[in-house]
Each structure stands twice: as structure tokens, then as C-alpha cells.
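Name: TRAP transporter large permease protein
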Amino acid sequence: MIEPILVVVVLLGLIGAGAPIFLALGASGLLGLYMARGSLAFFFAPTSFFGQLNSFELIALPLFILMGNVLGATPVGRNLFHAASLWLQWLRGGLAISTVGASAVFGAVSGVSVAGVAAVGSIAVPQMLERGYSRHLAAGSVASSGALAMLIPPSVPFIIYGAVSGVSVGALFIGGIVPGIALALALSLYIYVRVWLNPHEAPPATEPKPTTGEKVRALGGIWHALLLVFIVLGAIYSGIATPSEAAAFGAAGALFIAGFVFRCLDWTRTREIFISSIKVSGAIMLIIGCAKIFGDYLNLVRVPENVSAALTATDLPGWAILTLIMIALVLLGMLVDAVSLIVVTTPILLPLVTALGYDPLWFGIVLVMNLEIAVVTPPVGLNLYALKGVCPQLKVEEIIRSVVPFVGVQFVLLMIFVLFPELSLWLPGLL
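Structure predicted for TRAP transporter large permease protein:
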């Protein structure tokens, strides 16, 4: 029993020392395999690494990242916010609610939360501050709604969870629709109630009421991207194409829209997009492969089975165990990035969840909902620093304070989907 503890201590020590997460996972996993099987570890580790990456589903990962990066270089984010603000101008707090709507739609375009925060936040925050919105409402609405990209398909975390767990990526995409819409509505409702109780946080609009023609014309700058997302997801849901095939079409379509519709790509910009996409994809692949080494060691010494047996022996009801798991994941998400959390915790927690009688598809959905909280909580909340990067007029401290009530809304909704699994499973079952 001492060996698994030593391996975990080495893992945490390497992370605490600032080592790259893939190196910490790979080195600690290799150490554990060596202590368990001797020199055979040097055969097991490469087999685990390449076996995990030799997955057709993972082809979708770099292609969806490329699609999101290409569309992120276009004015789509700005156009989305402009259209949403025109359609919701009549509503008190309409700009903040428009931010939630624009972020949700941009999440369907990019699948990457940081890209949504950068694209929407760079436009939304200055406009809200200029029109007298409170700084906390402006920052909190952008940082929290940017996390919707993790849940609304095409979602990069769903692709990673599907590769690790074996659950259908297409089913995960379908399952993320209802929670994604529910979370967007919950954030919008919170903003509406907050502004109703504190009118000084969102002064009424002073601009002339937009005409129907202006509203319709505002949609002209976003229909191309929305049509592309509709085709990509429609091909997956209808069974015409696999997620990997649809991702290839999406990446090609994004390049066409950016190059020939918006005409915002030159050779230098295209090269930067491809290099950035390769770097992000490569980093994620390294983490996934090395996490498999670590996970295989845990399975070899039966850590998941022991954890499952210990928790089920407590005679706690299933919902209580799940609540403890969700709280633990929220705390871990404050310290570990989302990708690492998925690939490390899934092999440990999934056997426990299935032993309690829950669906692996449902667990993937609530896991990603949990990660939405992780990306807006310090010290590893990437959305916080992405917003600071595009809005230097905001301080990191006030951004962190601004997301606290929004995190509360996210956690309440998470627990609703934890306690009522059928809410997230009815649509995949229907389709």
C-alpha cells in the first residue's frame, strides 16, 4: 500500500515544483510501474502511451481546435455580441445577458472557453463599462459565460473524456445540449434578478431603439459560422459522419469562411493559427498519453477498485457519495487544468460511479459541468487570466471577486443535474 502513496507524492511533488503536467504524470506512472513490474515497465509505459493516442476519435481533437482558432480570428465574436445586444437592448441588463448568449453561440463555434472569453470579452467589457455597468457584473458575466464552450458541442473536453472512457463522443455532444442551454438560461436569469434588485449595476439603454431591419442585418455577420456549426453537428447527430469526419469538414469550412467571406487571413496569420493549433493539440495529446501511463499503474495495483470498495462500504447513499466527488473535483479543479483532471480522475472515479449504478455518459456530462467551475476559480482559472489579458483595465482581484456569485449559480445547477440524472440523459436517449 505504501507504493501507491509514494507515487502520488512524487506526482504532487513534481507538480508543486513546476514540472509540466505531462512530465509529472509520465514520470510518476513509470516509477509506479517499475516498482510493480521491474524492467517490464519500460515496455508497458510506451505501449500505454501509444495505445491511448492510437484512437480514431482523437483525430477530431486537433481539427476542432483548428476550427475554433480559425473562426476566433474572424469578427464572428464581435458580430455575435453586436447582434445579441441589438435583440436584447429592451431588457434591463441586456448587454450582460447578451454576453451570455454570444458566449454560448461562440462556444458552439469554437469549443474552447478561453477563445470565447477573449473574443467576446474584448468587445463586451469595454461597452458595458462605457454604458455605466458595474465592473463586477461586466467581468463576471464574461468570465463565467465563456466556460459554456466546454459544455456546448463541439466540446474539446467531451472528446477527451470519450477517448479515455470509451463513451461515444457523438452521444456526449448530444448530452451536453440540455445542460448547456440550462446553464446559459440560469446565468441570464441570475443577471436579470441581480439587476432588478440593484438597478445601479446596469443603467437603462439610452440609444434609440433598433429597427427590425437593423436587427436582421446584424445577423448577416454571423449566419455563415452558425450554418457551419449546424452542418457539422447535424452530420454527427444524424449519423452521416463521425465526429472526426465532421471535424475535418468544420476545419475546412472555417478556413473558407475566414479566407473568402471575411477575408481576414493572410499567409502570416494563417501560419500563426496553424502553429498555435499544433502546439495546443500536441500539449493535450502529451497529457492524455502520459496520463494513460499513470492510469494503467493505478489499475495494475487496483486503486480504483479499492477506492470504490471503501466508499461503497460506508453505506452512504449514492447521492451523498456523488456530492463528495463533485466537491472534491471542484477543489482539484482549482489546482489542476481541465484536461489533466479528466484523464487522471476518470479511470479512478468511473468504476465507482458505474458501481453505484450511474451511466458513464451522464458522469461525463456532470464532470465537464464541474470543469466549467474549474476554469473560473483561482489559481488555475484560465478564463480569469484570459479576461485580464484582453481587458487590462480590470484588475485580477476584482475579476476573481466578480465570478464568485456566478460560480454559485454554476454549482447549484451542477447539483441539480447530479441529483436528477434523467435531465441530461433524456435527449441522448431520444435521439
